[in-house]
Amino acid sequence: MVKIGVLAVQGDFEAHGRALGRLGAEPVWVRTPADLEGASALILPGGESTTMLKLLEEGGLFEAIRGFAARRPLLGTCAGAILMAREVSRPAQRSLGLLDIAIERNAYGRQLDSHIATLDPPEAFTTRAGPGPVEAVFIRAPIIRRVGSEAVVLLGHRGDPVLVEQGRHLAATFHPELSDDGRVHRLLLDKAGER
Ligand code: GLN
User: Fold this and answer.
1) 91-138 pLDDT, tens per residue?
2) Do the beta carbons of residue 25 and residue 186 sit within 8 Å?
């Protein structure tokens, strides 16, 4: 059974564990650098990115994750995507810089603070992940304001990218772990299998 690390210092890591279980993968809770050993990929969940960042820096995980990311794929969702971005605004904060994207926190404003959208996926997504609409749960979500030339947009919503891929990494501004649709997690598992 493929082991997928899930950062478990704060946020909705348990929902990711259930999503992985539905796909026959084994979640491994990551709380220390040693927990990364044996994991084929890593998920950075949603939550509060400032709190997560502080815990990563205190526990030595910040550098350990950067090292892991140089070899293995990562999926960041919502706060996890914020941690992976190169540039973070509103307010600015340090990040892992794994994806050449600029991301603005809590960017949907009051009315759309939390919402569920049904996305009509482009071919870039369906050819890899399979056909059919994608339910996307947004919770105090960020918006990706700039995508570098090496990043590919796999899903969009209201004209903004919401699932981006760059090399071995994926980042979503929504919460695929809160829907039964396993396609986004399946993309990570496919990448974890690419050696
Ligand atoms: N608003 C959070 C942040 O800025 C992210 C919200 C989430 O992960 N659902 O870190």
Assistant:
1) 999 999 999 999 999 999 888 889 999 999 999 999 999 999 999 999
2) no
What are the tens digits of pLDDT across the range 25-34? 999 999 999 9
Distance 195 CA to ligand 1 centre (A): 32
Q: For ligand 1, atom 1, which residue shows the shortest CA distance? A: 140
The angle at the Cα of 89, spanning 86 to 95, to the nearest 5 degrees, equals: 35
State the closest ligand 1 atom to the C-alpha of 175, by its place in the atom list counted from 1: 9
Catalytic position from the list 157, 169, 175, 185: 175
Q: State the pLDDT confidence band at 181, using cuts at 50, 70 and 90.
A: very high
